[in-house]
Amino acid sequence: MNLEPEQLSHIGNGYSGCWVDADYGSVSQKWLLIHSEQATKREQVTFYKNLDKNITKELKALGQLKKKQFACAVDAEQAMSDFANQCHLLGFAQSTIVKEPIYSGRGRPKKDEKPTGYHYLIDATPYTDLEKVKLAKLKVGMFILATNDTDNTDLTMVALLEHYKSQQKVERGFRFLKSPEFLTSSIFLKKPQRIEALLMIMTLSLLVYASLEHKIRESLTKTEEFFPSMVKNKTTTKPTARWVFLKFEGIDTLEFGGQSFITGVQEHQTRLLKLLGVLYEAVYS
User: Fold this and answer.
1) Each residue of 130-142: pLDDT tens digit?
2) Residue 122, SS3?
3) How many Cβ atoms are within 10 Å of 42's Cβ, its own excluded?
4) I need a labelling partner for 275 at 20 to 30 A (CA). Which of 11, 132, 177, 227 fits?
């Protein structure tokens, strides 16, 4: 798919894109082709590093093709045409089909000996096609977002891009379920019903975990308060829930004379509990 820069519309925050109607797997779809300025800066370095490597790869493939023998000129011409269409960087100044005779014996044929047949070889003169290089460079920083919601006329480029970016928050959350601390690898369940029940518990745990993390970060940001960072002597407004749990270790319940006392609560813990509300404070008071 060839795309020119003028076909892209500005989306915002360094993104631009355009809609393309597509049919993939017999399913009607809308594709949003997006160009990212940030990704372009990052990927251009790799593009130029791989340019010579990819050209050399295509030249090597051409060398292998030129060694191949074909039974007829038509087959050779078709093979050359297919190869030229597959080349992303090479062009060909000329290509010819060479007809070579086949003799029955080895070595140099005898004088006036007639060939038993012919085979055909490809001879082509390649060059680096700058137009192809330009088109390849245009793909740097590009990616596709696809949707089968083709009837939704309210779906905008901005909305689809935001949906895509927000899913990363969900995917990061599911790393929590795969972490060794969850011990899922040590649990064996035979019945499908028990597996489904465990999945429900794990998903519910993730919901609580993600909700608490969101509440903590939102409270810290709104009040301009900070929580100790994982980096020594640093603070942050975006701690993970797991880090907060670790920082709440060392709090104990002391029972004396029929009464219970909470000990070991530190200043940063008290500040956070106060931000979260009286329900949280009550647990540690």
Assistant:
1) 989 988 888 888 8
2) strand
3) 12
4) 177
